[in-house]
Amino acid sequence: MEGKELKSLDELIRQNLMGDDLLEFNRIHYGRKDNHELEIKKENIQYGSKNNFEISCYDFPANKEELRKPRIVKVGLIQHSIAIPTDKPIIEQRSAIFEKVKKIIEIAADEGVNVLCLQEAWSMPFAFCTREKQPWCEFAESVIEGPSTLFLKELASTYGMVIISPILERDETHSDTIWNTAVVINEMGKVIGKHRKNHIPRVGDFNESTYYFEGNTGHPVFETTFGRIAVNICYGRHHPLNWLMFGVNGAEIVFNPSATVAGLSEHLWAVEARNAAIANSYFTCAINRVGTESFPNEFTSGDGKPAHKEFGHFYGSSYVTAPDGSRTPGLSRVKDGLLIAQLDLNMCRQIKDKWGFCMTQRLDLYANSLNEAIKHDFVPQRLPKN
C-alpha cells in the first residue's frame, strides 16, 4: 500500500522545505509557524511502531484570562484499517478490529486523552458500496447492549475517558430499523446518548440509502465533564447548516467521524471541517478511515465502468482545527494512527469576541428566508433585468 499511495502530504512538505521557507508555509497553511507539538512518551512511540500505528500530539493554547481558568481537554482521534479480509466470519472480523483498536485506545489513555472518537462505522468494513444486505446487515447492533458498546464501555470506565463510537445501529424497538449512529459513552462507562447521521450520500459507490435513511435526532450537544461535544457524521460535513446547528446548540468540540475515498473527496477534506471551525467558533476533529477494502463479490458504480471489488482508497489524513482556523498536520494517508490534541476551550469564547461571526450571523434573517424556501409555492427573490 505504501508503495502505491502517497504516505502524507504534510510529510512531503516537511521533506522538501526547510528553514524560513518551512516556517512561512506553516504560517500560511496551518495558521501558525509553530505546530506546537507535544512530547509523546518514548515507550508509546515504540509500541505504536511495533503495532503499525503512528502517534502525534499538538497543543492549542488560549490567551490567559483574569476571570476564567484554562479549560484544558485532550482529545484523541483514531483512524484505522480493517484487520482481516471481508470474506471472514462476521464475529472474527469484528473481534480482530476490537483487538487492533484496543491497543490504540490504551496508548491514548496513557497519554491522558479525555475524549476519544473513532471513525464512522469503525467496527466493520464500509460495505455499503456492495448494495448487498447479507452478510453486512449482521454488523448492525444495539446502541445499549451491542458488542461495540459493551467493549468500549469497559474501556471508558477503566480509563475515565469519554468515547464516541460510530456504529451501524439496529433499532429493535422500531421494526429492526437500521441507522448510522454515533454512541456517546461517558467516563463512567454509561451511554449518555446517541446521534444519527443527518445527511445520507447518494454518490458514486456510497450506496448508503440502500441500508438506512436520514437520521431523526436533530443536532444534539452532549454535556460532558470535559466540555460540550457534538458529532457531525461523515457526509454531514458537506452541509454548512448541519455544522451551524451544532454551534447554535452550544458545541465546543464537533467530531466528524468519516469514511471517504481518494477519488471522490480528498480535495475537499482539508477545507470543510476547517471552515466549520472558523464559521462557528468551535474546535473540529475530522477523522477518516484508512486503507483499501476489497469485497467477495463484484459491484458496479452506475458509471458505465467495469465491475470491481474495491471501494477505493480511504485516505486517513485525520486532523484537528481550532476556532481561530489554525490546524494540526494530518495523520498518514496509508497507516493507522492516533492524533491527540490538547485544547483550551476558552479559545471558543475568545474567538467569538475577536471575530464576531456568531454575533453577526443573522439567524433571524435566514430563518425567515428558509421558512419561505421550503414552501411548495416558493418564489425566489430575483429581480428582473429591467
UniProtKB/TrEMBL annotation:
<feature type="domain" description="CN hydrolase">
    <location>
        <begin position="73"/>
        <end position="345"/>
    </location>
</feature>
<comment type="pathway">
    <text>Amino-acid biosynthesis; beta-alanine biosynthesis.</text>
</comment>
<dbReference type="GO" id="GO:0033396">
    <property type="term" value="P:beta-alanine biosynthetic process via 3-ureidopropionate"/>
</dbReference>
<keyword id="KW-0378">Hydrolase</keyword>
<dbReference type="Pfam" id="PF00795">
    <property type="entry name" value="CN_hydrolase"/>
</dbReference>
<dbReference type="GO" id="GO:0003837">
    <property type="term" value="F:beta-ureidopropionase activity"/>
</dbReference>
<protein>
    <recommendedName>
        <fullName>Beta-ureidopropionase</fullName>
        <ecNumber>3.5.1.6</ecNumber>
    </recommendedName>
</protein>
<dbReference type="InterPro" id="IPR003010">
    <property type="entry name" value="C-N_Hydrolase"/>
</dbReference>
<comment type="similarity">
    <text>Belongs to the carbon-nitrogen hydrolase superfamily. BUP family.</text>
</comment>
<dbReference type="InterPro" id="IPR050345">
    <property type="entry name" value="Aliph_Amidase/BUP"/>
</dbReference>
<dbReference type="InterPro" id="IPR036526">
    <property type="entry name" value="C-N_Hydrolase_sf"/>
</dbReference>
